[in-house]
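Researcher: Structure prediction, please.
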Amino acid sequence: MFPHHREREQPFFSARAHVFQIDPSTKRNWIPASKHAVTVSFFYDANRNVYRIISVGGSKAIINCSITPSMTFTKTSQKFGQWADSRANTVYGLGFATEQQLHQFSEKFKEVKDAARLAREKSQDKELANTALSIAAPQDLSDELQSPPVMCINGPEDKLFRSQSADITLSSEKERIKKMLSEGSICEMNLEAELFTLQDSNNKLVAALHEANANVEQWKKQLAAYQEETERLRDQVAELETHGGHGPSDLLKDELTQSLEELEALLKAKDEEIHILQSKKLEYHEMEHDRDEAMHRLQEMEMRNSDLERRVQNSEQNLNSSLEERDRMDNEIQRAIEILDIKIFDLNDLRQSLVKLIDK
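Model: Predicted structure follows.
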């Protein structure tokens, strides 16, 4: 697997360190992943635009981690640092020979994390520009925050304190909630655009309907006038036919017949226009129904966004509480260490005193 990666990826920073992984059963103790110090390298995959940390010990991969913007490399002592990989569901620890090597690796980790964040933002911008607008269902925000593991390693050089992986878990949770809020805002914008389109169509249909009603009234008046004219002409024809000696000429009959046909054709055309206006009126009612549905969906999205904002506030409060608890625990641990150092110093003095008494 890794020869294939090496053909496609090239390391741009490497360091030698002892690799550890958190115990999956206890989430408290470290398990050595390598017997000796191994090479830990940063790789960049140009085809996938992905940054990775890879370390190989012998013929197997010790570390194969894709770097995400939510990851954080934390220094827990002068020569030891750690970060959490949520995809692999583990925490990696690195023990360096010098403090300078740890500092160089930490700075490179920050640079790579920022580069991964910029790459993800560019990818998201492209997806938003090319993807059709759709309503995204919010994810369940009821995931429980895991308490950070406490690391215990007995060594002559390194003293490991309480793990700070709670920052990583809480930061990733906060990023996920912000993403959900952005998706809810996009859905709300889509519904608002749809509502504005429906309102514009509604206004146009209302204007057309008013104009059609005015035209119908005018056509009705014209139709009544035409009907009166037709009746008058028919009466004239009947009156002329009753007078035998004074009957109308063939030319007058043709003119009257043509006028009647024109009036009947005009009446038929007006009836068709009235039917068309009635069908438009039905379309107007359908548009009103669609507008009401869009308003209902917009209200649901507003309620959903309010709920998401409330959950974000709760998560921020939990984050602040966790940070305060972590600071309190760090202070207590520091005081315990100072007391322990004093006890060790006293025991050392007592031991030296005993040795002197024995020598006497």
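Model: The CA atoms of residues 188 and 299 lie 9 Å apart.
Researcher: Thanks, that helps.
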